[in-house]
Amino acid sequence: MTDLPALSAAGQPRWRLPRTATSPRARYVLAAFALIGFSIGISQNAAPAVMQDQLRDLGTTVDVLGLAQVSYCLGVVVGAPLILVGLGRVGRRPLLVVLSLAFALLSVATVAAPSIGALIGIRFIAGLPHGALLGVASFVAMTVLGRERRGTGVAIIMLGLTCSQIIGVPFSQWLSEAVSWRASYAVVAAVGLLAFAAVWAFTPDVPGNPHASPRQEMTAMRSVPLWTAIVTITVGFSGLGAVLAYIVPLLEIDNGLDPSAVTWVLVLWGVGTSVGAFVGGRLTDRDHLSAGRLGLWLTAAALLGIGAVGSSPVATIPLLFLLAIATQIYAQSGQVHLMDVLHGSPSLGSALSHAALNAASALGTGIGALIIAAGLGYQAPAWAALVLTGVALVLMAVGPGFRRSRTVAAL
Question: What is the pLDDT of residues 74-99, one digit of tens each?
Fold first, then answer.
């Protein structure tokens, strides 16, 4: 990892940017982006961990709380293209600063939600900056490390997300039981403000694309390979939402674990996602399509096991660990593939990948809520997710854009 050259325009007043941004160091830039991932990871992934306390405090049911998670994911889906389309010429630094501050302030609003209806609405708004923020950060990380290591750049940000599951999510679950779920989201807001400070201090003044235009970006978004990739990511990643959204009741009710044991299973889940992010980054640098197929096949195996024997802790815990690794490998591959397909606007491509990943979470969580509301139990969502994973495998085998992705990437 090498130092970056000074990127501020000649003659620009130095007071507008901190010295660490006008003469940036790559390690600090990537650390700031990992902190963004960490804060976003706690915000999104803490929702299942605090579910039991929210049930008591808000007087609602598991399936309705699942809709709050779906609402956040839909906010990401809407926000990523809504924010970035037409902003291709804007400098990446001001976008990151504004988006990171918005994310932190919206986390404060979550703490104050007075009812389940308000929580659902607030979580939708809180999700709006998520995809655009991670998308722009991924592009700047790729600028820092170079195109040949773009998988590693994405993985560093995703490691922030996955580390949140090792530390932040179990801590949120413990704090929710000890104090309240609102205290857990207050921690999210504090970490978000710290991430904003790091982004302001270390993000270089990377320019936007001077040739970008809303018309050009909208034209690019009509391509068949792009939408094939988005659909493939969405259906292939849905297993994560179907299982993770209801992991606490799955472990406590179906497997008979007490809350303290669930905390350690959540830690193990976070370790699995970090392993998957690290391995996925390396495999994606070599061949992102092969990495994606491997991640999907491993996801299918884990979902099959959870659906069949997910009521036994001896089987469920290793299967959850495998699912955590597999979905992260697939996530790295999908993000790089979309950046390649939408090569004229890689920030938008990366943001759309996060939109697709959250559409997958919304799909999986929503299907899970319907299945659980029908009385089929907490293992049953894994079967529905397995079917969708099979659809993704077929699309990766025959879908337009996948077989020609190396040619597209070279453009």
Answer: 888 888 777 877 676 777 888 899 99
Q: Does residue 6 lie within any of the structural domains? A: no
Reduced to 3 states (helix: H, G, I; strand: E, B; else coil), residue 203 is: coil
- In-domain check, residue 385: yes
* CATH number for position 292: 1.20.1250.20
104 belongs to a structural domain = yes
Q: What is the DSSP letter of 252?
A: I
- Looking at residue 167, the DSSP 8-state letter turns out to be I
Reference 156, options 145, 168, 147; nearest CA is: 145
User: Nearest Cα to 96, choosing from 226, 229, 197?
Assistant: 197
Query: Residue 354 belongs to what domain range?
Result: 25-204+213-409
Of 331, 306, 300, 330, nearest in space to 318 by CA? 306
**For residue 99, is it within any domain?**
yes
Structure tokens at 103: 């994310």
Share of the chain above pLDDT 70, in %: 84
**Euclidean distance between CA atoms 369 and 122, whole angstroms:** 20
